[in-house]
């Protein structure tokens, strides 16, 4: 059976390479399918060693260069800030203190490159929906798979992601699943095919179970935030809120003690006496990251700074620490690796994206023809909420899914501009070819004046009319 999987996947992969070259937008879909569903990770033989992403990505980039289908990348504040951030992290890598910084820079640069390629190929409603569907179904597969596994086994063990992915551990899987919950819900609402609508609804339900049983406290916080927002924004918020409470009460007796203790330990982290080793190590890493940024505010220490024992010993400020570890926070990760300048650019990218999505949603909400733009903007905005909350406790500053949503926000801005032009009145061409504002309608011509009566025609003062 495993050999059949390998052969089938290899045939699909080989067929996608020329397709990616001839139709690069399909190559981008294939790239995200490989990144989010990790189909080669479901095999057990030679297919696991194939250079899957390299060949698909290379064919897509070559097709993008040769294609006439590509559009200019919009010059939005998000794009400009993202380009500035890309330049800055290259500078910080040149000046990095760690010898392994270039390896991480290469990986992040590939993600950024495909992000910009996506911006140039998906400025179309149909293509953008395909992009959303590939992501939602690819990651939703692992939510469905994980939720079913929990119900079958009783949830005594953690749910993990595929071992060949960027979300392989329980923390990153929990975050990725939190980020796609709004996609599954919003896309299912407008899906006309009943069978696909039911599949996405099932994925939504089982994904919630899978998130809980990752045993990730950061993912649990993200789940609480996103479910609260989804319920509040629903027109049936009272009905859904009651159903959630009733469901939680029914499921409570069946929840393993290990999960209850894990969730209950969140409140114990406020006091240093009751704080566990995992959280204590996070505070040590955050303090070390801050010391690096203060000492090197312009460039930081470069990628993977806290992985280096010498850097840790230099900036920790003492010898009494638990272990050399990663930052376990996307914010402190950027701060330690790229200084206050890089941290500011990173926040600028995130803030400009959220503001842009808010404006798009406000502009097209309820519009009979372009209301889908507002729905997609709201969906994308909600997908970023768990990232900002749970990411404060997970090292995910360069999460593939985050840059994916940055690209989709830029494309929604393009669709919004196209809608504005479609609704605008057609301009009138002047003689010299300049575009002018349409002229106001001409006033009706005046009626001709009647001639004044002559003096002879006027009656004399002494005579009366009969």
Describe this structure in words.
By secondary structure, this protein is mostly helical. Helix content is 65%, strand content 1%. It has helices at 2-22, 24-37, 52-66, 77-94, 101-121, 125-153, 170-189, 194-212, 217-233, 237-251, 257-264, 277-295, 309-316, 330-364, 371-390, 400-423, and strands at residues 428-429, 435-436. It has a two-stranded antiparallel sheet with strand order 1-2. The chain starts with a helix and ends in a 30-residue tail after the last strand. Residues 272-276, 439-447 and 452-466 have low confidence and may be disordered.
Fold topology:
Blueprint: H1 2-22, H2 24-37, H3 52-66, H4 77-94, H5 101-121, H6 125-153, H7 170-189, H8 194-212, H9 217-233, H10 237-251, H11 257-264, H12 277-295, H13 309-316, H14 330-364, H15 371-390, H16 400-423, E1 428-429, E2 435-436
Antiparallel strand pairs: 1-2
For the CA atoms, what is the radius of gyration?
Answer: 30 Å
Number of helices: 16
Structural class: mainly alpha
What integer is the average pLDDT? 85
* Spans of at least 5 consecutive residues with low confidence: 272-276, 439-447, 452-466
First and last CA, distance: 120 Å
What is the number of beta strands?
Answer: 2
From the spread of the alpha carbons, the general shape counts as globular
What proportion of the residues is helical, as a percent range? 55-70%
Relative strand content: under 5%
How is the biggest beta sheet arranged? 2 strands, antiparallel
């Amino acid at each position: 059976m495993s050999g059949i999987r390998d052969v089938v996947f290899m045939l699909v992969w080989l067929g996608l390479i020329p397709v990616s070259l001839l139709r690069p937008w399909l190559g981008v879909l294939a790239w995200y399918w490989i990144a989010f569903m990790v189909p080669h990770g479901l095999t057990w033989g030679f297919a696991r060693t194939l250079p899957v992403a390299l060949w698909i990505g290379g064919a897509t980039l070559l097709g993008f260069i040769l294609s006439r289908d590509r559009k200019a990348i919009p010059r939005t504040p998000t794009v400009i800030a993202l380009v500035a951030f890309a330049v800055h992290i290259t500078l910080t890598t040149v000046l990095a203190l760690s010898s392994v910084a270039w390896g991480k820079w290469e990986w992040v640069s590939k993600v950024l490159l495909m992000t910009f390629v996506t911006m140039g190929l998906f400025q179309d409603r149909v293509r953008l929906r395909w992009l959303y569907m590939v992501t939602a179904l690819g990651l939703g597969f692992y939510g469905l798979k994980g939720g079913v596994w929990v119900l079958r086994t009783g949830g005594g063990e953690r749910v993990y992601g595929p071992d060949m992915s960027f979300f392989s551990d329980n923390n990153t899987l929990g975050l990725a699943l939190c980020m796609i919950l709004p996609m599954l819900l919003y896309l299912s609402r407008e899906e006309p095919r009943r069978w696909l609508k039911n599949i996405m609804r099932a994925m939504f339900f089982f994904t919630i179970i899978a998130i809980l049983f990752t045993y990730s406290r950061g993912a649990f916080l993200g789940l609480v935030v996103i479910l609260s927002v989804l319920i509040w924004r629903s027109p049936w918020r009272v009905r859904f809120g009651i159903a959630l409470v009733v469901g939680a009460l029914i499921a409570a007796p069946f929840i393993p003690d290990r999960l209850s203790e894990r969730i209950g330990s969140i409140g114990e982290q406020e006091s240093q006496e009751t704080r566990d080793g995992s959280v204590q190590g996070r505070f040590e890493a955050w303090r070390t990251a801050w010391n690096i940024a203060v000492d090197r505010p312009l460039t930081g220490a470069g990628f993977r700074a806290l992985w280096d024992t010498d850097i840790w010993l230099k900036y920790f400020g003492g010898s009494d620490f638990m272990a050399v570890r990663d930052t376990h926070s996307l914010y402190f990760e950027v701060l330690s690796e790229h200084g206050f300048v890089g941290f500011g650019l990173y926040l600028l990218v995130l803030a400009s994206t959220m503001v842009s999505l808010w404006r798009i949603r406000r502009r097209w909400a309820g519009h009979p023809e372009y209301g889908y733009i507002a729905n997609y903007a709201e969906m994308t905005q909600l997908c970023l909420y768990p990232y900002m909350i749970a990411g404060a406790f997970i090292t995910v500053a360069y999460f593939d899914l985050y840059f994916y949503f940055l690209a989709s926000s830029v494309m929604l801005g393009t669709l919004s501009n196209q809608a504005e032009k479609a609704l605008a009145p057609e301009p009138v061409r002047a003689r010299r070819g300049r575009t002018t504002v349409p002229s106001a309608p001409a006033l009706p011509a005046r009626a001709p004046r009647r001639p004044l009566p002559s003096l002879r025609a006027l009656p004399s003062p002494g005579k009366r009319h009969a």
